[in-house]
Amino acid sequence: MRSRGDAFDEGHTMLNRLEYVCLLEGAKMESDDSRCVKMHDLIRDMAIQILLENSQGMVKAGAQLKELPDAEEWTENLTRVSLMRNYIKEIPSSYSPRCPYLSTLLLCQNRWLRFIADSFFKQLHGLKVLDLSWTDIEKLPDSVSDLASLTALLLNDCESLRHVSSLKKLKALKRLDLSRTGALEKMPQGMECLTNLRYLRMNGCGEKEFPSGILPKLSHLQVFVLEEFMPQDDAPITVKGKEVGSLRNLETLECHFEGFSDFVEYVRSGDGILSLSTYKILVGEVGRYSEQLIEDFPSKTVGLGNLSINGDRDFQVKFLNGIQGLICESIDARSLCDVLSLENATELERISIRECHNMESLVSSSWFCSAPPPLPCNGTFSGLKEFFCYRCKSMKKLFPLVLLPNLVNLERIEVNDCEKMEEIIGTTDEESSTSNSITEFILPKLRTLRLVILPELKSICSAKVICNSLEDISVMYCEKLKRMPICLPLRENGQPSPFLNIQACPKEWWETVVEWEHPNAKDVLHPFVNY
């Protein structure tokens, strides 16, 4: 397939066809309700029986084996062997199966498998797929280096793996997974020879920077994931923007650029970014919090840390289009307008701003003068679902009132420990000077509102805000706040419907000072408040 998207479409077509004729059956994952397919035990037994009749398969998955099957079971006709999810501890030198047609070998999830003798792979020259993931091996046998037909080598989650022999001869390799192999001491030799590689996922193997000269040789690469997690070193491995930009077929990218210049150099590569369908890119000195946070962000996310971009008007022009997630940590921007072009950020779903002490508002007043009219219709923040703001010392206002009609998809607002915060949704000077003040808005999807340690907060919004989906509200240590402009959904009797959960502090302030839009709201909500 020319692209991974085409490959996925073809794969799903096959799965749908098999499900339609009842060879597979639809199911849902227990963890997240995502759709999947499974094979009925009877169908699986039938498939295995067909393989056995032709002596082409050996399937002993989850059979509680403590050692490899006997030598006579390793017949010459074998094409596929699955020994996954067993208790095999070692493969001694007495094993050297002669299986010239064996193409797939699954030894994954043998958690106690620590040693594989070099002799084991000596006569398996037809092997194409080797899965040793989730095992405890410390060293990949040198004989794997001679498996010239290998197209997939999966070593992910081998946490004890310290050494991988040269990959120079594996020129047919398309997929290499070395992710979460925290003990690997150095980068495997010969990686620049893997010219057919489509998928590469790995950590830094103790390196500070991904070795130069390798990526430009991997011109067919479609997936490049360079992990952040490095247990032996706090510093993440970085990669040069120019080298990543040379990958013209890249569709998925996860990496860390050392600084602003590398990021700009990558974005300037043009064709190198047009092919991207998913990306998670960190730039600068990003803390552990943001490194972990980006995992839960949407599939197109950029994280910026400790960068000097204040006043650099060239920055936003080169920002990636279609961005869905933005993390800003300790950057000196005055507003988001210094970071990206808001007109092109209509797909932004999640924003997290942390310790950006020069930022006074999300949107600068100058942006209102240059934004195309009419302002509420230009789509800015129209896709936004979640917004987080933590410990920004100079932040006074968040969303401008004029953009409130765009926030129809907003589900969550969290503002914490911003000592100068005065308004959550505030009017600009331009709005204050006109008589066309807006008195009512609807935030139809807002479910969570958390305002914590905002000592100067005087207003959530000057207009009345109707929130029929609100379930969780926390207002703590915001003692200058006197009015809750939130309008609750009404029951048939005209009384406001209570939230599912309310947290408030201090108790006396909440009970005596705070007033609601609806006169009976405080009485109705009283039983649901936790102090």
From TrEMBL:
Source species, domain of life: Eukaryota
Outline the extent of the Disease resistance protein At4g27190-like leucine-rich repeats domain. 378-484
Which keywords annotate this record?
Plant defense
Mind telling me which Pfam families this protein's record contains? LRR_8, LRR_RPS2
Q: Which InterPro entries match?
A: At4g27190-like_LRR, Leu-rich_rpt, LRR_dom_sf, Plant_NBS-LRR
Identification of the protein by name: Disease resistance protein At4g27190-like leucine-rich repeats domain-containing protein
